[in-house]
């Protein structure tokens, strides 16, 4: 019976060990770098609205995240408490990795998000940016070129969002 508490402790440690969703974290590879054109420029959000990044002259912030991830949740709270999400000069799109429309709509209500969310149920969008690690923040300029990528597993990655 002494092994049962050890098993529970081990499972708990694995469950809270990060948002890469693996017990052993893989090397984080980022497939885009500063100066690259964004690999995905058209989306359909959870409300059925078509988004074409080329139709906006604003800077853009793409946030690749998951609703269950503590780092993603913390990042969204910091974003909502910042002025970034209020700027008329920045378009924000949250891309829910392996998330459904229903889960993202619930998350948007709970976190009071005022920007478009895109369901990436099969990782087809995410896999063009990275192999592992969420949240990921991708800053784009008005011409949809990558300015900066941030792996948001820090205390407040929003402080790194500058163009």
Automatic annotation (TrEMBL):
Q: Enumerate the spans annotated as Redoxin domain.
A: 33-155
Write down the CDD domains for this protein, in alphabetical order: TlpA_like_family
Q: Report keywords, A-Z.
A: Cytochrome c-type biogenesis, Disulfide bond, Redox-active center, Signal
An example GO BP is: cytochrome complex assembly
Q: Where is the signal peptide?
A: 1-22
Q: Which PROSITE patterns match?
A: PROKAR_LIPOPROTEIN
Tell me the InterPro entries matching this sequence.
Redoxin (IPR013740), Thioredoxin-like_sf (IPR036249), Thioredoxin_ResA/DsbE_sf (IPR050553)
Q: What is this protein called?
A: TlpA family protein disulfide reductase
């Amino acid at each position: 019976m002494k092994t049962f508490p050890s098993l529970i402790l081990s499972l708990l440690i694995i469950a809270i060990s990060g948002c890469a969703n693996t017990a052993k974290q893989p090397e984080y590879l980022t497939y885009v770098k500063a100066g690259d054109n964004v690999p995905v420029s058209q989306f359909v959000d959870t409300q059925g609205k078509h988004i074409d990044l080329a139709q906006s002259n604003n800077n853009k912030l793409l946030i690749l995240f998951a609703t269950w991830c503590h780092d993603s949740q913390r990042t969204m709270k910091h974003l909502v408490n910042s002025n970034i999400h209020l700027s008329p000069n920045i378009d924000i799109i949250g891309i829910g990795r392996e998330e459904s429309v229903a889960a993202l709509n619930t998350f948007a209500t709970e976190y009071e998000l005022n920007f478009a969310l895109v369901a990436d149920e099969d990782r087809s969008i995410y896999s063009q940016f990275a192999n592992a690690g969420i949240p990921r923040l991708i800053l784009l300029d008005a011409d949809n070129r990558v300015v900066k990528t941030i792996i948001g597993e820090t205390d407040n990655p929003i402080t790194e969002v500058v163009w």
